[in-house]
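Study this protein:
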Amino acid sequence: MESIIITSDNVNLTNCAKEQIHIPGSIQPHGTVIVVDQESFNIIQASTNVDIFFARPHTDLINTHLTEILDQTIIQKIQDCLNQDFSAINPLRIKINNQHLNLIVHENDNLVFLEFEPIDEKYNNDFLSFYNMTKKVIDQMQSSGNLQELSEVIVKNIRELTNFDRVMVYRFDADASGDVIAEAKQEELESLYGLRYPAIDVPDTAKKLYSLNYIRLIPDIEYQPVPLPNHPENNQPFDLSYSTLRSVSPCHIEYLENMGVRASMSISLIHENKLWGLIACHHYSPKYLPYEVRSACEFLGKVMSLNLIAKADQENLNYKVQIKEKLSELFEKLSHTVDISESLYNNLDLLQSIVNAQGLAICFENEIRLFGVTPELNDIHNLVNFLKSHQSHNLYFTDRLPEICPSAVKFQSLASGIIILYLSRVENSYIIWFRPEVSQTVKWAGNPHKEAKLEADGTLTLSPRKSFELWKQTVTGRSLPWLSYEIQQVMEFRNLLIDIIFKKSNELLELNIELKRSNDELDSFAYIASHDLKEPLRGIYNYSYLLLEDYQAALDEDGNRKLNTLMTLTKRMEKLIDVLLYYSRLGRKELIIENVNIAEIVANDIKNIIQASQTENIDIRIPRKIPNIKADKILVEEVFLNLITNAIKYNNKPEKWVEINYLLDSSKSSQPIFYVRDNGIGIQEQHQEIVFRIFKRLHGQNKFGGGTGAGLTIVKKIIERHGGKIWIESNYGEGTTFYFTLGAEEK
């Protein structure tokens, strides 16, 4: 047989999922409806069975004032209803033609709907009878330990209160399907406990009405609908969304027939303003419940709705406490660290355990670290790119990843469930928790896939299922579901992390401000002190010179030597002060950024050095053309001049060589890493940081041509002013390489 492909173009869902069940144009026959204009209180329309209660055909009532069938006292009560909460007023007990009736009032679209039902004389509508119906149930609900116990209490007591053949708690899952999680029934009936019903069994249109009306009664599915004619002015059916008597969808009647159910009642369970589930009551013969009993059931349903949060919190309490403790421990560690990303890397086990995941991937600025059971790095990259293009939220989770991301099928055994938390989409920082695939056997109440009927016009019609026999399905590509408090745990972790980062940022900002202030003060002090010191220093030198010139003959050899030493020391001190002044100016000097031809300035430096060292045997090597950069030309020239000069100066080999070249940083290919390499004396590892300290020499003044010991300090300062860094690699006695960047892009 040729298979039929069902599409939105060939399927007719009008009689099911798209049925306009809120405007059926009829009501159930256990009551009657009168529609009244809210302003004038004139009767606009009435159901065709109104004569049973008012002894007048419905056509006679149209355009008459409500006072023709109700006395002014009742009308005043109806008007009072319009100004108050309907649920606090309904029902109004009235007497018409010696018949006691419940009058239920609601308003919709500037129309007042009056619904009349006969009163069961067993219920006198006083508080005591209502209290007796509900007190015992509420006591038991309060003493229940968890959601399962609560559900079992409610089905048992609702069945005792109503005497329905079967009462169930039906909970909707995330995919809109539903599970029977509790059941009370007649012994001879087959149990439906643990069965799952597909989402299409309760269409969205029905869920909307369940959210508006907390209780819905169908006394007999074989009833004959009572017409409620259309609005006489616009010929449109009335919206009966809030009506207790609203006629039943033909699809739902067919569905109940297929289950063998003759009467039903549903009580809505609302959690956080969403339809959480239903208390579903089934009877296999006609069954009418008085409004008073239905009100008690509705009240108990609302009490259960309020208890859903508290009882759900009792489930897995030990696990909740455990993961909360893990989060607190992680928070404590993060609060006392300087580098948050490194701290997270060092506590991957804690980070994984806050949601009981089996694997973890954490990424900061494209550096990914994995922990536990995870997909390969390349698969994670592809997954993140896919999710970025399909999800815009900072937090996303699913327990059926292969359904969302087709490429995830290849690693579904490792990661069918994920939570991804984006710390920064711009910097590509995120955390992913993974859960492996867990194959499950789902027990459906009948085959969940509806069969389509091919109509004469070529369309396909989906009808209610006819079979509800146990139908098992093995589900793959899914993990254990993420629980709501696990998602809350991740959100709490994110908020805590943001608080820590914000606090650290403020602390760092304050430190930077204080450091800048201190540096500025230090620079100013160095400049002022150095400038002021030069004047007395010149005086000392000049007076020493005059003493030697005028009194050289009068002084002995030791006196002349001491005065010459004094002049030499003052000259050296002047050089040191000049260096200090220059160094302090470097901190304040504004950089003049321009395109710098490095090859040209290196050539000039080499020319000057060769001329100054005519007797030296120097081999200058430049293996390839050095790229241009954006920098301060004068300062960069000083960097190369200092490094090349030092490479020649600190070299005791008979054949000296210096290599000037560059590398490309693999992470930032546009930024060159320059280096100056020599075959000189080398630097011992313990001295490789010391050489950058100002006025720090590793050798005596008379070795390797002397000097102030500030050259490398100035080089480091210039490089850092350009946003770069400098470091050393050296083999003592064999040579040294100075690497440095200038934070500039290659042209």
Summary: The chain has 19 helices and 30 strands. The longest strand covers residues 99-108. Confidence is low (pLDDT under 50) at residues 1-15. The first helix runs from residue 51 to 54.
